[in-house]
């Protein structure tokens, strides 16, 4: 297959974001080996952009780190030809503070850090809208940014920051929206979040491949291995209830 990183269908490369999601994929890797004889090589990344570039240029066979709104934004903006092979977990986003214990204590003029990737920024702003903290022009716009705020009665100031850096800036701001992917390794628990998504969140993460590869045997073996009780158990252990299976 042109563009594939491996001619034989018994070895695939899968991109993940470094951290607990990679640890979860390690369990799926072992199951794929034991059940199908499939060798899964995990390639770790530390940002949200490079894994899609690597998938598009054929360096990876699949990646497992992004939800559908983010994938669609990258497909639209960069022209990638991607398809969804399977679903993984919902990792709820939460708003954390090192200074305040409740959302009611957040002062007027507070500085709020947002993830700067298109869909997660909108995800955070929609949560704020739903809590009545701001009013968006269109609360159904999954890619809203601060310029789409119609009313900001508390005069919040917003800082747009790369998602992986948000735990580091938490002491310097009043509140930060942090994906569970990065919150959990930083010692943050969803139980401590001032605002958090519920299990009904539409932002389920995906196993993404290039168009035409979604029915490839090795890819479906990987998806099947991922959709196992052992993977659910590992996610429960690592995320302490902060990972909700998205394929059930």
Task: Give a verbal description of the structure.
The chain has helices at residues 20-36, 50-56, 68-78, 118-130, 166-169, 180-183, 217-226, 229-239; strands spanning 11-17, 39-45, 62-67, 82-90, 93-96, 111-115, 135-136, 149-151, 157-161, 175-179, 195-196, 204-210, 244-245. The protein is an alpha/beta fold. The strands form three sheets. Strands 2-1-3-12-4-13 form a six-stranded mixed beta sheet, sandwiched between helices. α1 links the parallel β1 and β2 (39-45).
How is the topology of this model organized?
Layout: E1 11-17, H1 20-36, E2 39-45, H2 50-56, E3 62-67, H3 68-78, E4 82-90, E5 93-96, E6 111-115, H4 118-130, E7 135-136, E8 149-151, E9 157-161, H5 166-169, E10 175-179, H6 180-183, E11 195-196, E12 204-210, H7 217-226, H8 229-239, E13 244-245
Parallel strand pairs: 1-2, 1-3, 6-9, 6-10
Antiparallel strand pairs: 3-12, 4-12, 4-13, 5-10, 5-11, 7-8
Q: Percent of residues in helical segments?
A: 25-40%
Structural class assignment:
alpha/beta
DSSP summary: helix tally: 8
Compute the number of strand runs: 13
Order of helices and strands: EHEHEHEEEHEEEHEHEEHHE
Separation of the first and last Cα atoms: 32 Å
